[in-house]
Design a protein that fits this description.
The chain is of the alpha/beta class. It has a single domain (6-301), classed as Rossmann fold, CATH 3.40.50.300. The protein has ten helices and twelve strands. The chain is globular and about 60 Å long.
Length: 302
């Protein structure tokens, strides 16, 4: 992986919420890279800080410490207007709830066009309409759908509209925040296959945020496991699934249902006890247990 081009670099990222005594770190000194053309999975329980990382990358959430570098340039904190416009165009986000993320009062034509309206990334009205048409076609929707409203579509179609809204911006990096968790099971595979196809056709890079590990295994190249704001393990997807090292990762993998009633009855879940790691008392450090497979441990463990 070291020979590949780093598209995004996260260095000691910290995101805090609350005021004074009630202040807490949702993301606690997280570091990782995303390479051009890959899909990096970010997994963990609800409240582990996954979405906070995604929202910090697209500059929705302010960072308290650390650097976010896109193509080698820092994009968190105060940046000039030209770089801000580039970040808006080149880094897009697919949101979790396709029902809530679309403006019910706007037609699909405006919803898909909103980004290029704001960045003035079109030369004429005909050019704008063509961009919308191409974006809808790329996600398997008919151009005539542009004149309809969101309530006229199913959940899967709405999520396709959400994807079209990101594609019209011609992004390089897409943050997919649990993009299929609100969809029916029968529709999920369609959206995942669509995302994979678009990745190949358009040369996209994804940060895929999820809690469903079976989905993560299907779509990602590497996986970072997040627990209470810290990344505890990072490895290539198959390496992580076949040889999990951190006890928290083992616990997550043991909770995946087995589609075999006999095996499911005897399945044992490995529960993680956080007290076995004293990260607050002993400085945590990364250990490379095998090539490109990293695990967070504390100093006393050696």
């Amino acid at each position: 992986m070291s020979k590949l081009e780093k598209l995004l670099e996260i260095k000691d990222l910290r995101v805090e919420f609350g005021r004074k005594r009630d202040r807490f770190a949702a993301v606690n000194n997280v570091s990782f890279d995303i390479y051009k053309g890959e899909t990096l999975g970010l997994v963990g329980e609800s409240g582990s800080g996954k979405t906070s990382i995604g929202r910090a990358i697209v500059r929705i959430t302010q960072t308290s410490h650390g650097d976010i570098l896109f193509k080698g340039r820092k994009i968190n904190g105060k940046i000039d207007k030209a770089l801000d416009q580039e970040v808006i165009r080149k880094i897009q986000m697919i949101f979790q709830d396709p029902m809530a993320s679309l403006n019910e009062r706007a037609k699909i034509d405006y919803i898909v066009s909103e980004g290029i309206y704001n960045t003035k990334n079109y030369s004429s009205e005909a050019d704008r309409k063509q961009k919308v048409e191409e974006a809808l076609l790329s996600v398997g929707l008919l151009p005539e759908f542009a004149s309809r409203f969101p309530h006229e579509f199913s959940g899967g179609q709405r999520q396709r509209i959400g994807i079209a809204r990101t594609l019209v911006m011609e992004p390089e990096l897409i943050i997919a925040d649990e993009p299929i968790s609100a969809l029916d099971v029968s529709i999920r595979a369609q959206v995942l296959n669509l995302m994979n196809d678009l990745k190949k056709e358009l040369g996209l890079t994804y940060l895929f945020i999820a809690h469903d590990l079976s989905v993560v295994r299907f779509i990602t190249d590497r996986v970072a496991v997040l627990h209470k704001g810290r990344i505890v393990e990072l490895a290539e997807t198959e390496v992580l699934f076949n040889n999990p090292v951190h006890p928290y990762t083992k616990g997550l993998l043991s909770a995946i249902p087995i589609p075999n009633p006999r095996l499911e009855r005897t399945r044992k879940i490995a529960f993680y006890d956080p007290s076995m790691h004293q990260y607050d008392l002993y400085p945590p450090k990364w250990i490379e247990v095998e090539s490109e497979h990293f695990v967070l441990t504390d100093e006393k463990e050696g």
